[in-house]
Amino acid sequence: MAADRPAPRLRRARQLDLYRRAMQAMPGGTNSNFRAWGEDTVYVDRGRGGRLWDVDGNEYIDLRMGYGPVILGHADERVDDYVNERMRKGVSFSLTSEDEVEAMELIKQMTGWVGKARMTVSGTEATMHAMRVARAYTGRNKIVKFEGQYHGVHDYALISVTPNDVSTLGSEDNPVGLAWGRGIPEAVSKTIIPARYNEIGVLRRIFEREGHDIAAVIVEPIMGNAQGILPEEGFHQQVRALTREFGALLIFDEVKTGFRIARGGAAEYFGIKPDLGTFAKAIGNGYPAACFGGTEEVMSVLPDKVSHGGTYAGNRVAAAAAVATLRILRDTDALESIKAVGTAIQGELREVLNTRGLPYVFTGHPTMFGIMFRETVPTEYRDWATSDHELYDAVAVGMHARGAMPEPDSREPWFLCEAHAREDVVDKVATIFSDSLDAALEARAHAEQSHAVVTGMASGEHVAAHSAAADPD
Ligand SMILES: Cc1ncc(COP(=O)(O)O)c(C=O)c1O
């Protein structure tokens, strides 16, 4: 039991220095709000395969993989050598290279349904352009998105994404649009209609109310921003049928699922033909490659009727990375290996969890999965909120100190890469998880005991009170 072992501690001296220095130059000491973890902010030195090292020399099994893009492993020589060879010819011309053509041919080939595609630099830009194309093609203004889904950081995407307090999302029948942070014009946020994932009735009512002005439904086919909540049987088919019925488009945001859960992404996996799709992350093994694509018909609004550009769109580094990565995903059994290692890790974790008698559910796909401490299978973002995510967060943070790094926020799934399958990580991850879980449970029991002493409550009564509060249903 972890309780018998001393609590491990990370070396932090250099990172704390860097944090204090970075705080003078960058808000939160980082280039993204999501990486700003206060004094625990991690400053990375290097990565190789499925591992990373911070600047203090602490080694971790990486279970974030940069939030998903590093599908093959850090510093993968097959991709890096190709990119290096191509970039020596120059990286930015604002002209078009053969790599860009081949990258988009690969997207067409692997999806089977994309007729034309354009590169962007980020997933954010990809979803922003896909929404614009949808509005342009249909001549309508509004986009439906699902609560808890993340489509990047442009104004149209930051509605009803991550509140901890779900009461702010409005009633179950009539969700309200909740802007994430200040600075989003009200006029923009009013064009986004929040719906609830796996609740086709709510979506139908939205379409019946204002279907005439809905250009598209954008959906993360698996909810990557809520531990990978899966669609219920037939949900995507129903959404597809509804969008067709009301003349709206369907945008599959495959930034996380794209070429991770299947060679043809979630569209292939769930047997759906969307009208538009967005891809990023795994298509470039960590290089900033992204794109949006759609059927020949829908994409015909480009280039004449819709604006899209970007100095770095299709730059050599990203395009070459996409070519090298997509060829590997298409031609090798990388995806099968990643699924196998994810499945093996889940098997070990199941054994650990079963012996603790905790309610838990695995979410997502073995290549990007979550662990939710709750009794029943979650179907939407509101279910994440009623899971025991405080316990999950404590376990995740405790894993860092023990040598594995999942995201310390329970909304983010664990991401596996091909290199994990070669590195014999399964037992290590299970031991680290087990130790951290025990430590978190012990800390919780300790806190409850102290609380019971302070309040004078009998400990038996207190445990009963706590389990009622933790029970999601
Ligand atoms: C589903 C989804 N869409 C869009 C984005 C935005 O991509 P990027 O961070 O490259 O802008 C993300 C990023 O996590 C994502 O998960």
Quick recap:
The chain has 473 residues and is an alpha/beta fold. The chain has 16 helices and 14 strands. The strands form three sheets. Strands 4-10-9-8-7-5-6 form a seven-stranded mixed sheet, with helices on both faces.
Tags for this entry?
seven-stranded mixed sheet; Aspartate Aminotransferase, domain 1; 473 residues; binds pyridoxal-5'-phosphate; four-stranded mixed sheet; Aspartate Aminotransferase, domain 2; single chain
Describe what you observe in this structure:
This protein has 473 residues and is α/β, with parallel strands linked by helices. It has 16 helices and 14 strands. The protein has two domains: 2-73 and 334-470, Alpha-Beta Complex (Aspartate Aminotransferase, domain 1), CATH 3.90.1150.10; 77-331, Type I PLP-dependent aspartate aminotransferase-like (Major domain) (Aspartate Aminotransferase, domain 2), CATH 3.40.640.10. It is 41% helix and 13% strand. The strands form three sheets. It has a seven-stranded mixed beta sheet, sandwiched between helices. Strands 1-2-3-13 form a four-stranded mixed beta sheet. The protein has a three-stranded antiparallel beta sheet with strand order 11-12-14, covered by helices on one side. Helix 6 packs parallel to helix 7. The two termini are 30 Å apart. The model is unreliable at 458-473 (pLDDT under 50). The site of pyridoxal-5'-phosphate has 15 residues, from helix 4. Pyridoxal-5'-phosphate (PLP) binds at residues 67, 122-124, 127, 150-152, 220, 224, 253, 255-256, 280, 290.
